[in-house]
Amino acid sequence: MSQAQLIDGKAAAAGLLETVRQDVAQLRAAGVTATLAVVLVGDDPASHVYVRNKVLRANEVGIRSIEHRLPADTAQDTLLSLIGTLNADRGVNGILVQMPLPAQIDEGAVIDAIAPEKDVDGFHRENVGRLVLGEPALTPCTPSGCLFLLEQTLGDLSGKHAVVIGRSNIVGKPMASLLLQANCSVTVLHSHSVGARELCRQADIVVAAVGRAQMVDASWIKPGATVIDVGINRIEIDDKTRLVGDTEFESVSRVAGAITPVPGGVGPMTIGFLMKNTVLAARRQSRQ
Ligand code: NAD
């Protein structure tokens, strides 16, 4: 039985970060210090790990990072006022507010408050609209990373049938828009889809972003298809916690042509694109 090619997200992200490092140095030579402001509200342990990794990675490529840590009981107005200050600060190019936010804060209001040109997560409605219209935009990091891996693996995606499983605002929907922009025929499957498995089995490209451990097994996959697994799920096996994706890696990799592992696939690309978006924002703001 043949085995799918493993799509190495760690290596791809390392290459991407190297180009970012060069871009940052070029900006610095022109007198611009690319700067990312990271805002963390509350004590969620996973969010702390994410923020630490983002700041570390930024520093590694020469991006200046500014951290704002606010207590869990922070009022929405306090956070909005901080965002207003960061929007007005010409020394800040990108603003990232780590989600999820505590219950008293409306995430939509926070995303709306970020200046679109500093919205390095690509979640602001102006960037969402621009992406859908095919205009230059800051695009969400995870789907941008998936597209990068797909183009690196397959080259031109024109005419390919892509199935995106999941329709969240941060992964599924922008992924579908990016694939459409890359001239794929796109099918989006979600929790109300009928005959999802049969539709998926017609796909040349499958992007699984469901958040259900190992839901997609080999019976969903056309032989030779390229599979991008966005899912990050923690499961217990023999009293040990393991990270698994939304696909059943063992069986799918015997049918697929290429597949991303979890971990080591899409995950590293997300941070890579956060850095790339920060440089893009800095360049646009300084017209470099
Ligand atoms: P979400 O919960 O917001 O969305 C899940 C989507 O899956 C929904 O649109 C829902 O309609 C769909 N869905 C649920 N059950 C389904 C079914 N049986 N068949 C088809 N569709 C179904 O999740 P999300 O934020 O998009 O994240 C998805 C996964 O990706 C999660 O595991 C998350 O942890 C992971 N993720 C990873 C990264 C990364 O950097 N690698 C980034 C973001 C999210």
Helix-strand layout with pairing:
Elements lengths: L4 E2 L2 H21 L5 E7 L3 H16 L3 E7 L5 H13 L5 E4 L9 H7 L11 H9 L7 H14 L6 E5 L6 H10 L3 E5 L6 H5 L4 E4 L17 E4 L3 E5 L2 E5 L4 H7 L2 E2 L6 H21 L2
Parallel strand pairs: 1-11, 2-3, 2-4, 5-6, 5-7, 7-8, 8-11
Antiparallel strand pairs: 9-10
Helix pairs in contact: 1-10, 2-10, 6-7, 6-10
The site of nicotinamide-adenine-dinucleotide has 24 residues, from helix 10.
Description:
With 288 residues, the chain is an alpha/beta fold. The protein folds into two domains: 32-116, Rossmann fold (3-Layer(aba) Sandwich); 140-267, Rossmann fold (3-Layer(aba) Sandwich). 43% of the residues lie in helices and 17% in strands. It has helices at residues 9-29, 45-60, 76-88, 107-113, 125-133, 141-154, 172-181, 196-200, 249-255, 266-286; strands spanning 5-6, 35-41, 64-70, 94-97, 161-165, 185-189, 205-208, 226-229, 233-237, 240-244, 258-259. The strands form three sheets. It has a six-stranded parallel sheet with strand order 1-11-8-7-5-6, sandwiched between helices. Strands 3-2-4 form a three-stranded parallel sheet, with helices on both faces. α1 (9-29) runs parallel beside α10 (266-286), α6 crosses α7 and α6 (141-154) packs across α10. The longest helix has 21 residues, at 9-29. It is globular, with a radius of gyration of 19 Å. It starts with a strand and ends with a helix. Bound molecules: nicotinamide-adenine-dinucleotide. Nicotinamide-adenine-dinucleotide binds at residues 142, 165-168, 170-172, 189-191, 193, 196, 209-212, 230-233, 266-267, 270.
